[in-house]
Amino acid sequence: MNRARVLLYDSLMSYAVISTWKMSLNGALIAGGVLKNGGTTLEAIKAGINDVENNPDYLSVGYGGLPNREGEVELDAAIMDGSSGLFGGLMGVKGIANPIDVAVALSKKRLNCLLCGAGAEKYARLKGFEFKNMLTEKAKKQWEEQEVKDNELLSLASYNGHDTVCFAARQENSLAAGVSTSGIFLKTPGRVGDSPIVGGGLFSDSDAGAAAATGDGEDILRGCLSHEIVRQMEGGRTAREACETALFNHLKKMDRKNLKVGPISLIALGADGSFGAATSLDEFAFIYTDSDNPPEVWIAGAKTGMEKAAAERLNQYARD
Ligand code: GLY
């Protein structure tokens, strides 16, 4: 791309990125840069998520992700393009260096776009995607130190063991959402959460909005929460109102059923230009950036709504 073209994009592009947890701050910066230079929403999400997948310090995503009960790292990822309606996803894959890259490739297909296990790995090998050992020494040590007792397993909540990285991006009128995770620490081999399931862990429709979720996947799937958020935006709610309404209604319903629910956090971008989040945690850190604002950490709280994180409090979120 020549310099004149870059400058033109700089001055004209209207874009936005929202992502979960402070761990995605650098990824949001990268994703914003992709959009600023005229890249697509899928390219931006892929680049942002790659930054988190490649970082061994994050024990919930990609390389360095915590393993299942048998000590194997099983990864899920998905992406949905809200303009074409196409999506791609991978479930329970081992050894794929960047699952989101394969999800993006699959999202070009109408059929055979959601693959699991051995079939997904075979596809990735055939297409030349990189494979490597995704279990780091740090993650292995944590697995070895964990006493796997049934009662302890039952008490393991997602926020003790994992946090999915979720991105939503808007480029002009085009929206998309993408996610990547190693799932719940010590999960049963073969277990799949909400992340690669369209409507559960992510959903995007450029006419309404894009949304994604983090928390125990089973809890999120029970409410098809990402689809519900987009449906709320379609009905006229802003991204924040949609996240809050979807979460509130879901928790109320689960309560009526006497079903215990772990913490859930939601993010969304609206086709109306709004952004928002909601959480059942006291504090949930997310990142927001757009064509007028650099990436910043925001905090949503179950009781406090959402606000920009005060600079002096940022180190409190160092582990997110
Ligand atoms: N939210 C990711 C999972 O439950 O696996």
Explained architecture:
By secondary structure, the chain is an alpha+beta fold. The chain has a single domain, classed as (Glycosyl)asparaginase (Glutamine Phosphoribosylpyrophosphate, subunit 1, domain 1, 4-Layer Sandwich). Helix content is about 35%, strand content about 25%. The strands form 2 sheets. The protein has a 9-stranded mixed sheet with strand order 4-3-2-6-5-1-11-12-13. Strands 7-8-9-10 form a 4-stranded antiparallel sheet. Strand 3, helix 4 and strand 4 (about 115) form a beta-alpha-beta unit. Helix 2 runs antiparallel to helix 3. It is globular and about 45 Å long. The two termini are about 35 Å apart. Glycine binds near residues 194, 215 and 217.
Brief characterization of the structure:
Helix content is 33%, strand content 25%.
Which helices and strands occur, and which strands form pairs?
Blueprint: H1 3-12, E1 15-20, H2 25-36, H3 41-53, E2 75-81, E3 87-93, H4 99-106, E4 114-116, H5 117-126, H6 137-145, H7 150-155, H8 158-161, E5 165-171, E6 174-181, E7 202-205, E8 209-215, H9 217-221, H10 225-234, H11 239-256, E9 264-270, E10 275-279, E11 284-290, E12 293-301, E13 305-308
Parallel strand pairs: 3-4
Antiparallel strand pairs: 1-5, 1-11, 2-3, 2-6, 5-6, 7-8, 8-9, 9-10, 11-12, 12-13
Helix pairs in contact: 2-3, 3-4, 10-11
Bound molecules: glycine.
